[in-house]
Amino acid sequence: MDVVSDVISVLRTGRPSSSRTSVDVRWQMPFDAYDGAGFHVLLRGNCSLLSDFGEPVRLGVGDVVLLPHGSAHRLAGDGTELLCGKYRLDRSRPHPLVSELPEIIHLPATVGRHLELRAAIDLLGGEVEADRSGRDAVVSGLLDLLLVYMLRAWLEDNPGTGWSLALADPAVAGALRAIHDDPARPWTVPELAAVVGQSRATLARRFAAVVGQPPMAYLTWWRMTRAARLLRDSDAPLSAIARQVGYESPFAFSHAFKRLFGQSPNQYRLSEVS
């Protein structure tokens, strides 16, 4: 499992949604803050995004704007057609890959850039308005693809900082991939270092510098994040969840979970259900 896909699969909740809107007069529309992420694609006309996070963002035809933190904003345009959508995300354990993203990500429609993103937009735009068999499944799948492509485009356009740097660093990315591939494995720093062909000290130093925490701390954090998702979305017994996230006994798992969440797994599950 690559890191970006795994992060999205754990953070996502519910089903994404989208709509296509055409307005032939001058207009302005507010969008309230949302517990998730939203996006807009300008298909026709002129449009600006206004928010409390800097200067207005002028959108050209084909431009994409992603609001990864669901920030409140306004759109204003004249003779405009837009493709809009949103994703509900679990904010209780935000992954740093998402947390470090800016409030507004503007992806201009530059010729020859991010071809997969452009293809997904074209397909989604056609399916949203169509009344064809399988439409709901196609739209849902395309929205999932679009989120990945938007995040990928941002990471590629902003190399050398934060998680862009972590995913571009062969050793750190290899260690992250190993953790996400098999979080239940009893990893140690020497084992991760052997996987990526680095010394223990070099990997530990580099990993902490670009990820923001040591390898074992990240492993524990990710295990508990996955466990929280399993507790919320399944009725699996604690023993099964414990094994899935690398603990031999429910007692050891419960102790680790309570240390990070401040409540037992059973208390967490009950609070999420209620």
Give a verbal description of the structure.
- The protein has 274 residues and is an alpha+beta fold.
- The chain has 2 domains: 155 residues, Regulatory protein AraC (Jelly Rolls, Sandwich); 105 residues, Arc Repressor Mutant, subunit A.
- Helices cover 50% and strands 23% of the residues.
- The protein contains 12 helices and 6 strands.
- Strands 1, 2, 3, 4, 5 and 6 form a 6-stranded antiparallel sheet that branches.
- The longest helix has 23 residues.
- It is globular, with a radius of gyration of 21 Å.
- It starts with a helix and ends with a helix.
Question: What's the gist of this structure?
Answer:
The chain has helices at 3-11, 96-99, 115-129, 135-157, 162-168, 170-181, 189-196, 200-211, 215-233, 238-244, 250-261, 265-273; strands at 12-31, 36-50, 57-59, 64-67, 73-89, 105-107. It has 274 residues and is of the alpha+beta class.
Approximately what portion of the residues adopt beta-strand conformation? Answer: 15-25%
Could you give the distance between the termini? 32 Å
CATH architecture of the largest domain: Sandwich
Order of helices and strands: HEEEEEHEHHHHHHHHHH
Q: Which CATH class of the largest domain is shown? A: Mainly Beta
Mean pLDDT: 91
Q: Residue share in helices?
A: 40-55%
Shape: globular
Number of domains: 2
Number of strands: 6
Oligomer: single chain
CATH T-level fold name of the largest domain: Jelly Rolls
What is Rg?
Answer: 21 Å
How does the helix and strand content classify structurally? alpha+beta
Largest sheet: 6 strands, antiparallel
CATH superfamily of the largest domain: Regulatory protein AraC
Low-confidence residue ranges: none
Our count of helices gives: 12
